[in-house]
Amino acid sequence: MPTLGCFLSVSIWLSFWAIDTRAAAGLTGISGEQSGFYAIPSNSDRWMKMGFIRAPVDEPTPFNNGYGTDAVAITFDRNGKVNSPPVYIYTITADTNQERKLRLVVPGISTMESVRRLYGRPFKTNVGGTQVWYYSIPVFNPFVQFPSER
To answer: Which end of the chain is more exposed for a tag (fewer CB within 10 A), N or C?
Structure first.
């Protein structure tokens, strides 16, 4: 029975620390290095706990006529290289086109210039001494639009 108790305590610990993200790990980047990203729903507080409070996320609501904004956060080290997997904060569902682009961002290899070519001009800030670039991705949810006047 001690083995079962140890197994249960480990699984409870893992489920406690499990975050509501989908980690796309084990993907091969262009250079052959491991690449991946985190996709976190916007209704989770996990992305705020990670320090991405300034991410330009806006839920699609009837008040903005079904339009909203997803965000991508990419962190860089002092040498201008991506230092951790990017974080994709989505409002409705994770977009497969964004997932494809995020697979091209390889920590330790991708540079600021390569990310700028891929995504364009960022909104820049610092989080805990680390430079973070945010990108806004427009989204639309037709199910939360106000009914049209007829």
So the answer is: C
Instruction: Please name every residue paired with 35 in a beta bridge, in sequence order, or none if there are none.
Output: 27
Place of tokens 């989908």: 22
Residue 30 belongs to a domain: yes
The string of pLDDT tens digits covering residues 11-58 is 332 332 333 333 434 333 333 445 689 999 999 888 888 888 889 999
Residue 60 to residues 22, 64, 65, 139, 147: CA-CA distances in angstroms?
A: 21, 7, 7, 8, 15
pTM of the model: 0.73
Compute the Cα dihedral for 98, 103, 104, 105 and give only its sign. Answer: positive
Hey, what amino acid is at 90?
Y
Q: Report if residue 59 sits inside a domain.
A: yes
CA distance 33 to 135: 24
Check the CA dihedral 103-70-124-50 and report its sign.
negative
Is 40 domain-assigned? yes
Q: How many domains does the chain have?
A: 1
